[in-house]
Amino acid sequence: METTRDLFVALARRYAFADLGALTPSPQIAEACEFGQRLLSLDAEDFAVDTKAVPADLKRQARACHMPQTPREQPRGALESLRPAFGLLLEVIAIRWHRRELSPMIAAVHIAGEYLPLLAFEPRLGHAGDPARWPAGLNAPESRFGVIGDRECDHTKSEQSAANRTLRVAGEPPQGWRAYFDRQHSQVAGALAVCVATCRNPCTAMDWIEPGPRADLQARARTALAFADTPLVRLRHAAPVGHGFGVPSPEEVLEAWERSRTALDKNPVGAAATQDDGFPLPGLPSLFGAVAAVPLAPSTLLEGVSRHVVSLIER
Asked: At what angle do helices 211-228 and 102-125 cross, to 10 degrees?
């Protein structure tokens, strides 16, 4: 590096926002780096924090991935659609891969696995699992959705508890709303997929979906559940973000993904994972798009933040 400015530009282009923010004497650059680091860390609670140091178009893209912090907050962000959030997840996964930050990369893959069922349900719901907008049919007569202790229901006890809570959390104060999203919303995603795809004793909870669309949703939700149980997602338990102390190597990640692609290649939806779409984990965007029933690609949000920070440095 010839100059400090060259170093700062290199850090911005490597998405090293935390390091650059700590080193720069410029409050404006530091504020833009804090914005970028929140995105890279997937801190969805704070994506909507306003800052004058970031252009409006980047803030608008970030707000589309934001998780509302109160039951009535507008706009609804990631509860309106998870597609922008999955685009960001894919961009983060790619950046972490290229930086060889494999533990946070696997953590991002795990997050995607938890919420993938809601991506499958979005075309039918018309939203991304907003508890303030659940269809009345979920709680129809003879529905076991959210009935705690029902032994005929295939949900686990924790899924029953989460399903029960989701039907009433929109009437709770903001503290209860945030606690629900911290602990239970991802379990509701899995519970919905079980209802439509794998339940051995179906009740009326899914009767609000017509048979044709329900068959399509069943295939996509089943693939979402299968992804959450793939060798790639299970790598999380071998990383510091899981229950162990090892960090997977790039070779171990690629090997786990190849085994995952084979396991998923059981139907036309899962077969999308076998495509070579140019992603570091080939086929991952194609798989997410097949589950969502719309094409999905990595966002360019963090790339835009990087370019903006470079422009601030070079002024």
From this structure: 170
Closest CA to 117 of 185, 39, 178: 185
Is 51:17 a contact under the CB 8 Å cutoff? no
- In tens, the pLDDT along 150-189 reads 999 999 999 999 999 999 999 999 999 999 999 999 999 9
Residue 52 to residues 19, 98, 157, 233, Cα–Cα distance (Å): 21, 30, 46, 38
Residue type (1 letter), 31: E
**The Cα angle at residue 110 between residues 109 and 114, in degrees rounded to 5:** 120
Closest CA to 15 of 86, 90, 91, 110: 91
Q: What ranges do the domains of the chain cover?
A: 4-124+225-313, 136-196
Structural element, H or E, at residue 198? none
Around Cβ 307, how many Cβ atoms within 10 Å?
13
Using a CB cutoff of 8 Å and minimum separation of 24, what contacts does 14-20 make? Answer: 14/99, 15/40, 15/95, 15/99, 15/302, 15/306, 17/305, 17/309, 20/309
| Cβ-count burial 126-140 (b if 16+ within 10 Å, e if not) | ebbbbbeebeeebbe
H/E stretch holding 92 reads helix 83-98
Q: How far is CA 120 from CA 51, 225, 287, in A?
A: 33, 10, 11
In this structure, what token pair is assigned to residue 195? 């209802």
Residue 244, pLDDT > 60, answer: no
In sequence order, the 6+-apart residues with CB closer than 8 A to the CB of 243 are 237
